[in-house]
Design brief:
- The protein is of the alpha+beta class.
- It has 2 domains: 3-55; 77-289, Porin (Beta Barrel).
- Helices cover 17% and strands 60% of the residues.
- Strands 1-2-3-4-5-6-7-10 form an 8-stranded antiparallel barrel.
- β8 and β9 (264-274) form a beta hairpin.
- α1 (3-22) runs antiparallel to α2 (33-54).
- The chain is elongated, with a radius of gyration of 34 Å.
Amino acid sequence: MYLWKRMLCLLVLCVCTTQAMYGQTRSDALVSPDRLADTLSSVGSSVRASRQLESPDESLLSDEERRKQRGLTDIRTVFVPKGQWIFGGTASYSTHTNESYQFLIVEGIGSEGYNFRVSPMIAYALSNNMALGGRFIYSRTLLKLDNANLKFGDEETGTDIRIKDFYALRSSYQAAVIWRQFIPLGQNKRFALFNEMSLTGGGVQAKFANDSPVKGTYERGYTFSLGVSPGIVAFATNNMAIEVNVGVMGITYNRTKQVHNQVTVGRRSTSMMNFKVNIFSVGLGMAFYL
């Protein structure tokens, strides 16, 4: 950045040295010690001033300059350029079926069900290495439990708890506004860290039924949350990348209304502030940078 100042100092040094050696007239053949000392002193002062400009005192730096020194806003490495669109998301699906299965003290498990979750995402880079966008999250869970026995002790004096004809269906839908800041790993444009902040709101519906004749419960509620999810992104091709993130902190509020057999009404509200790694929020997804 200050290369031109160094070149100027060297040029002045050469001119002054030449003038001191040859003199302003043809009769001067010796170098004046005093003049040469003054010249070298002035050049040394210029070099020291240039070094001070290159390495300023940290106490005199602004907050923006300190962030640049830490590498959090390295303008030399543009990982996501301004104006780029990001499309991506995550999806998962799993099923299970049990027939007369035994797990520890639970015997004769007969059940089936599935878990489905999809989360598409779209974002736009407002500036270099910073993007703003949205995410939609939908999940659905089903569990049908035909039979299960919970036994404690022996057959004569023990306790036997039987569960049968249990049905549970739960669906949730959420929309989130997300903000991402990318931190390139040095000069590498293939790997980068990112921090994602999200403001999420949505609703949930659930149905529970058991026994014969059937007794049913219907739930409906809503949830709001503010979370922070750092992660890492790695480009597999020029436009396609793999992303991994995990929730480390957040604030969540839930409120649920429950109606049992269309007669009894109950309500529940919960709030939680979390400042730890949530292993259940680990996400692995794919994104396209276009």
